[in-house]
Specification:
alpha/beta, 3 helices, 3 strands
Length: 89
């Protein structure tokens, strides 16, 4: 029988760049770990979640991302705008 589970590993670089990254998601359980692995160089990662019903939030937290819940009203670019306003330094 074939093993269908994939192993997730958290990679932390020696030095992180002083960059904040915002990742808008909804039900990205299958893709988020790979995405966040590639963002390990960033000092800060925010995952803006539109009410995922899978394990998206758990995965984001495992990688140390800050998870923010967002109720999307179906119109663009509300989610993108939230990220720019909510996390502005």
């Amino acid at each position: 029988m074939e093993n269908t589970q994939t192993e997730t590993r958290v990679v932390t670089p020696l030095a992180k760049a002083p960059v904040s990254v915002v990742v808008p998601v909804k039900n990205e359980e299958g893709n988020l770990a790979s995405c966040l692995e590639h963002l390990a160089w960033a000092d800060e990662v925010f995952v803006v979640d539109s009410g995922s019903t899978d394990k998206t939030g758990e995965i984001a937290e495992k990688f140390g991302a800050k998870v923010v819940q967002f109720k999307w009203d179906g119109r663009y670019p509300k989610k993108k705008k939230l990220g720019a306003e909510e996390f502005a330094v």
